[in-house]
Amino acid sequence: MEILLDVHTHTLASGHAYSSLQEMVQAATEKNLQILGITEHGPAIEGTCPLLYFRNNHVVPRQFGSLRLLMGCEMNILDTNGTLDMPADYMRYLDVRIAGIHAQCWRGGTREENTQAMLNVVRNPYVHIISHPGDGSAELLFEPIVLAAKECHTLLEINNHTLSPARNKTMARPNNLEILRLCKRYEVPIILGSDAHISYQIADYSRLWPLLQETEFPEQLVMNHQPERFCEYLGIGK
Q1: CA dihedral in degrees (160, 147, 72, 15; nearest 10)?
Q2: What is the reported pLDDT for 24?
Q3: Share in percent of the chain as helix, strand, coil (round to 5)
Q4: What is the distance between the alpha carbons of residues 135 and 193, in angstroms, rounded to a whole number?
Q5: CA 27 to chain centre
Q6: What pTM did the predictor assign?
């Protein structure tokens, strides 16, 4: 599979990443990507950029040679209502909108309540991608989430970063395997995410290939080698 896009990455602006925007663009160009997404953390994460950063996205060029740049945000899901930390009037400044649960700003409940929160976000028309739903930060029922993702054309991410031994996410592997098996059963496309916090990690999915192989996951359901289909599926660029 030729990897042509990576849309979940962070720069210095997120506060705990290590490369500049220009360094990320250069690395993506060297890896022959066609699409790079810069998705800084939403304001509920300590040390990230202010809302003004996202409003000022218009100053950033969107094309660097053959590389298309998408300026977005990884918004935080805050509670069991599916509340996001990005005001709706700011979302229009984002090319790609990711939403995920991060333990430091998540107020969860029962597995059923957490699942309802995720369903509300999957069905949110502003949200394109759910970041690392299988990382174990919240206990979830994955089958209804997969079915909702299919209905709403929301992509579920299989995240490389959460499988790092340093993260100690013990449920990440079994949860992601379950998500992959469900997506395969119901023919739901997924996206691989590097969650790169330094330029060298862009398009690094090395921890995910064994999961795809173990589940015999269909290549046609992986969006990372299909840039045009990715944009069409999510309505990006319309």
Answers
A1: -50
A2: 98
A3: 40, 20, 40
A4: 12
A5: 19
A6: 0.97
